[in-house]
TrEMBL record:
Keywords: Glycosyltransferase, Transferase. GO terms for biological process: carbohydrate metabolic process. The keyword Glycosyltransferase applies. Pfam families: GH94_b-supersand (PF06165), Glyco_hydro_94 (PF17167). Residues 11-292 form the Glycosyl hydrolase 94 supersandwich domain. Residues 307-734 form the Glycosyl hydrolase 94 catalytic domain. This is Glycosyl transferase.
Length: 810
């Protein structure tokens, strides 16, 4: 069952019913100001940090669902309705929500009155714009009242939702004609405030939420809307809001448009400590003037569309499969941009009040983003590295506003160090910019501890010199990629290393998954060392990688698949010897991606075991059999009911690892089969089962042991986005950046006979046509570049050349 459709020409998903199974959301903003917006107008806005600089309130886990947002109430001859249906839920004559790239448009009608709301965050400004247009489609004159409504958050979203004894006394606003300034906290910081405005004279306003709503009422039935007149309230403590009342008289066929702006403003630094009383409005005035007409607003909207069209032109696919093209060309890359901006901090499943940016998460997000805006990827790598400790470990998370480590989470996730190598390697392979390795970066944000980035990578790699267990495998620490696999190797001291001097001393649980990472990213680190003249170090690194490779074969192979780990008692995890949790997905993907077991013919066995034991019609589950009861030695993983999250849910994040692994051994049909099972465009028809957005990847889909098998949760902010784009663009379609150029190495299903990929790489445009008339799955027979056949499948870079025409025959 569908609740909408893809409009590929306009790069939109059009939702045709407001009653979607879950709120289907979009993200506005791609620089510093961000808004979440649902298909019924719900959501919230913030500047840089969803916890510390939240502009508007949102009520999570509330009834009715999706409570609070940017609302517009239309009063027409006694009937009151909302263009986005919520919060009054008045039945509409027509409804459509068009989620596009960085914008959302509502198009609705009631009683011959059409309304549209275009919501977007303009490039280069810190505000959300809502352009509201009303058109009389009837034969009689209409007298219309339009009311807007937002509820301000008192900046710190955690304190706002807990510290009522203080907050109910601090709400402050200032007013100008058609402008509301929310200045709560201005007495403390004196440098920032929010502004809410409309570009036309108003019939009234309100800034006091309780007066606007009325006692014991909600946004579904505000007293002001019912009466038809604003109260012109000025908030003093309690809960400030922003509401404007506008009146329009529309003849048949006539329309009127209004521009509402919600913005974040900081005073110039030199005026930060001005006297209290009246805030410096000049920066706000300049912002509002940029959008004070419909023409200016439309121009900003057109500029936003141009921005996204140019950005997504860096990798495009042409082939007969429309679903594949729309995911590759539009929605997967768009989600990669969103996850780069948000990490795992702000969604409808992440409240924006806790996690911030992730060391591991942000490093992985780079893999799918780096080709879009490499200079931002470079900046992010340096931010991530600055939260690393001197021993190579790192804060697991950091706050985006302060760039400092999250003390609540601390460190001890022993996979973290290697992800910094992965992200840096991806950046250098994309750009050829080795100067990043010379950048001075502090350890633990302490400038006196600064060292070149290459030293950070060195300590990331050598962290495991003193963090190995009795099987010569890396210690898992608090956890590895699987945060819920807690094998009693836990430390409450941020930055503490999980060292061991012998098999019976200290925490000794080991991770085969990290061992696979060590081999894969250790080899990439060795190449980086060679490229900057560190040949001796590269050789040393390769020797250590070879030792780890052998340790995996010795202690990490179970006969038909790779073992998952060893717990603190050196008991095996993820083996046929176990009653539950006999096989895990993570090491099967990572170890084969690293090349472990390929020459020994073990990789095919491991992937066959995945298909036999873990595969389902909705994707590959994380483990089998599911844990039926809690196991103290395993930790949080067994606290989930069977089939959910890490306890045998379909964790979409690591399904691409299996698909990539299948390309390593040349099975294109199977790689594409795995890809399609979790790809939103291919499962749009079962939206009533999947429930989450059919244009964005979800973190988790309920596994076969769950009651609601196939139901998705935690959409948008997931490493699935970056890994899936890496999988489809670099391994299945096979256009892969390398240190010395662009590799053409497709591993296709036999259904793809021809395809053309346009790829911007290091300042040049590559048009690559792949011909596969024989339906081959793997292998390049010949590559012709600008009419000349080349050796191998690496297109060498010619200095100064701006265009490459490539024909590849499989």
């Amino acid at each position: 069952m569908k609740f909408g459709y893809f409009d590929d020409i306009n790069k939109e998903y059009v939702i045709t019913s407001p009653k979607t199974p879950l709120p289907w959301i979009n993200y506005l903003g791609c620089e510093s100001f961000f808004s979440l917006i649902s298909n019924t107008g719900g959501g919230y806005s913030f500047y840089k940090d969803a916890k510390l600089l939240r502009l508007t309130r949102y009520r999570y886990n509330n009834v009715p669902c999706d409570n609070n947002g940017r609302y517009f109430y239309i009063k027409d001859s006694g009937t009151v309705w909302n263009p986005g249906w919520q919060p009054m839920q008045t039945p509409l004559d027509s409804y459509a929500c068009r989620h596009g790239l960085g914008y959302t448009i509502f198009e609705s009608s009631k009683n011959d009155l059409a309304a549209s709301v275009t919501a977007f965050v303009p490039i280069g400004d810190n505000c959300e714009i809502n352009k509201v247009t009303l058109k009389n489609k009837g034969s009689e004159k209409k007298e219309i009242s339009l009311f807007s409504y937002i509820e301000f958050c008192l900046w710190n979203a955690v304190d706002d939702s807990t510290n009522f004894q203080r907050n109910l006394n601090t709400g402050e606003v200032e007013l100008e004609p058609s402008v509301i300034y929310h200045k709560t906290e201005y007495r403390e910081r004196r440098n920032h405030y929010a502004v809410y405005s409309v570009n036309e004279p108003v019939a009234g306003f309100d800034t006091d939420r309780d007066s606007f709503l009325g006692a014991y009422r909600s946004p579904a039935n505000p007293e002001v809307i019912e009466s038809g007149a604003s109260k012109n309230t000025v908030a003093s403590g309690w809960s400030p809001c922003g509401s404007f009342h506008l009146k329009a008289s529309l003849q048949p066929g006539e329309e009127v448009s209004y521009v509402f702006v919600l913005g974040y403003v900081e005073n110039p630094v030199e005026e930060k400590w001005e006297s209290l009383g009246v805030i410096n409005k000049r920066p706000a005035h300049a912002m509002l003037e940029r959008y004070n007409t419909v023409a200016k607003t439309d121009a900003a909207f057109a500029a936003l569309k141009d921005y996204w069209n140019n950005l997504l032109s860096k990798y495009t696919l042409e082939t007969e499969d429309d679903k594949l093209c729309r995911m590759v060309n539009i929605w997967n890359q768009y989600q990669c941009m969103v996850t780069f901006n948000m990490s795992r901090s702000a969604s409808y499943y992440e409240s924006g009040t806790g996690r911030g940016m992730g060391f591991r998460d942000s490093s992985q997000d780079l893999l799918g983003f780096v080709h879009l805006i490499p200079e931002l990827a470079r900046e992010r790598i340096l931010d991530i590295a600055s939260t690393q400790f001197e021993d190579g470990s790192a804060y697991h998370q950091y706050q985006p506003l302060t760039k400092t480590g999250n003390m609540d989470i601390g460190s001890g996730f022993n996979d973290d160090p290697l992800w910094l190598i992965a992200g840096t390697s991806a950046y250098i392979r994309e750009t050829g910019d080795y100067t990043i390795l010379d950048e001075m970066v502090p350890f633990d944000n302490k400038e006196e501890l600064s060292a070149p980035l290459i030293e950070h990578l060195r300590r990331s790699f050598h962290f495991f010199d003193y963090n190995k267990g009795p099987h010569k495998l890396p210690l898992i620490g608090r956890a590895d990629w699987n945060d819920c696999l807690n094998l009693n190797c836990f430390s409450e001291t941020p930055g503490e290393s999980f060292q061991t001097t012998g098999p019976n001393e200290g925490p000794v649980a080991e991770s085969v998954f990290i061992a696979g990472m060590y081999v894969k990213y250790g080899n990439e680190y060795a190449v980086m060392c060679e490229k900057i003249g560190l040949a001796e170090e590269a050789s040393e690194v390769r020797d250590k990688v070879a030792d780890m490779y052998q340790a995996v074969l010795s202690a990490g192979w179970d006969g038909e698949w790779f073992v998952r780990a060893y717990d603190a008692n050196s008991d095996i995890i993820g083996s046929h010897q176990c009653k539950e949790g006999q096989i895990f997905i993570e090491p099967q993907g990572m170890c084969v991606m690293a090349g472990i077991g390929v020459e020994e013919k073990l990789a095919e066995k491991a992937l066959d075991s995945v298909k036999e034991k873990l595969d389902t019609k909705y994707g590959i589950v994380l483990l089998q059999p599911a844990y039926q009861e809690y196991h103290v030695n395993l930790g949080e993983i067994s606290s989930y009911p069977p089939g959910y999250k890490e306890n045998a849910g379909i964790f979409c994040h690591n399904n691409p690892w299996i698909s990539i692994a299948e390309t390593v051994i040349g099975r294109g049909n199977r790689a594409f089969e795995v890809y399609k099972k979790t790809c939103p465009a291919y499962i749009e028809d079962i939206s009533e089962i999947h429930r989450a957005e059919p244009y964005a990847y979800a973190q988790m889909i309920a596994g076969k042991d769950a009651k609601n098998h196939g139901e998705a949760k935690n959409s948008w902010l997931t490493g699935t986005a970056a890994w899936t784009f890496t999988n489809i663009s670099q391994y299945i379609l096979g256009i892969r950046p390398d240190f010395d150029g662009l590799i053409v190495d497709p591993c296709l299903p036999d259904t793809i006979k021809d395809m053309t990929i346009r790829r911007i790489f290091r300042g040049a445009e590559y048009v690559i046509k792949v011909e596969n008339h024989g339906g081959h799955q793997k292998g390049i027979r010949k590559i012709v570049v600008d009419g000349k056949e080349i050796e191998g499948n690496l297109i060498p870079i010619e200095k100064g050349k701006k265009f490459y025409n490539v024909i590849a025959l499989m």
